[in-house]
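Late entry, evening session. Most of the bench is empty. Finally got around to the prediction I had been postponing all week. Sequence below, unchanged from the version circulated by S.P.
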Amino acid sequence: MERICLILLLISKTLSVSAQFNGYNCDANYHSRFPAERDISVYCGVQTITLKINFCPVLFSGYIDTDLALNGRHGDAHCRGFINNNTFPTVVLFSISLNTLESCDNSLVVSTAQGMNAYGNLSLVQIGNISGYIDTPDPPTIISYLPGLLYKFSCSYPLEYLVNNTQLASSAAAISVKDSNGTFISTLSLLLYNDSTYSQQLAIPMAGLTLKTRVFAAVKATNLDRRWNVLMDYCYTTPSGNPNDELRYDLFFSCDKDPQTTVFENGKSQMGRFSFEVFRFVKHKNQKMSTVFLHCVTKLCRVDDCALLMPICGSRKKRDVLQKTEPSSVSGNAVITAGPIITRSDETPTNNSQLVQLNGPAFRLNSVTSALISGVIILGVMSLCFFVFSLTLLRGKRASPASLSGVRNPTFN
């Protein structure tokens, strides 16, 4: 009887486990366990990063495929993976394009290390480390009997490769212009410089630029005759090289302008010039460095018509006149990009008093020591006063017999 019960118990457990893996390529003998680090495979590809997660332990833990998402973005469908049941075991696949790295909050951290540069020489090169995680959502209850799943991944690429091969930063764009003599193509480029002379291009140190460093930008046109000028419609920044990134910060747009941005020249020549102070994106708060990409929406306009395209704040008169101008007097828009501008966030010391001690006296008193010394001084003063008072009384007693040495009172004879 006991053997029969044992056999029935084993059969019931086997059926329950097989029912749990029903429809998926899982083996109950190997996958009846909680997930481990070996359950994720990371492939750092040329254009994409591919992640494969063993789905069977996820099922055993009580989750389904839609519970897994990149970096906690469980509400975004494009941040979730998809099932591949044509392999053994069944896996959940995630694909991350290098062109849209931060669409699901993946982290890009730039660092410096020794390696081979583009010329094959050993030197210090900048490395872009892409990292993130895949997890399950927290339950809405106070407690849970399900384990929280977390898979971490990272890939490292030379920053030059990310910029050049994935088109994260394109510093030039071709624009077609129709003229009375035909159609010609001009090339627009966005360049960064160190100072207002616009003679030396921006050099970013290995540790990154300090915050509030002023950077000078210029939009230049080539293959352009004198009848056309460069007009910057607006310029903005993003944390990634994608101009369509949802997270953006405008430097100037129509009549709105960032207080730290200065426009020197726009629509008056074949070059547009402005400057701004570098900053960091708050989303990079846990990183020592922040990446900033600059984008400018630019067009070409006839010299006589450029003034009509310039915004006049508080009035739309000239904008209305623009609609009556010839279509051939202005070109289409082109988006040009420069970057990445790498900024560093200098860490603030956790104990500022230690810095003060380095520059101040060699010995400082804390509050407890000062209170003890003050108490000792007060007690010393009180003791001294008591001693002086006692000495005064003692002298008074000694002086009283001497006061009797005078004329005797005859009453006491």
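Two things to note before I forget:
The CA atoms of residues 134 and 151 lie 5 Å apart.
The chain is about 20% helix and 35% strand.
Will write this up properly tomorrow.
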